[in-house]
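ingest -> validate -> predict -> emit
validate: passed (alphabet ok, no gaps, 143 aa)
predict: started
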Amino acid sequence: MNRLLVIITSSLVSWSVFAIDTGRAFDDDELQARYQSIISEVRCVQCQNQTIKDSNVQIASDLRREIRRLIGEGKSDGEVYDFLVQRYGEFVLYRPPMRGITLFLWLAPGAFLLVGAFIAIRVVRKRMSMPLEIDDEADQVAN
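emit:
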């Protein structure tokens, strides 16, 4: 019975290896490098926390195939990204361009860090300027 369970489990697990296409998409090293770069920068629209390079869902596979087709047709990286953004929105890009609302997303972390540092400095300075309070009860016990 244990052998049967091991065989079934290993066969189910082994099929997940075939989910991500790990073979070379192009014979040309330059095209392959472009392909790898693009699929590393595109977010899986179903998983949302993985690139399509790392995702094994069907839509990620479809996107990889579409990107291979576009690169094979001679499209530039910008044209490939434009196609994806037009179809799925700027959310599909891990690094959206700096414009409009995305400018806020790029600048907000630095602004929050500066505001936090400013508040921390003010609190520390205020506490340093406060007189030390001596606990009268502690003094009476000590005497």
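Residues 1-96 form a domain with the Helicase, Ruva Protein; domain 3 fold (CATH 1.10.8.640).
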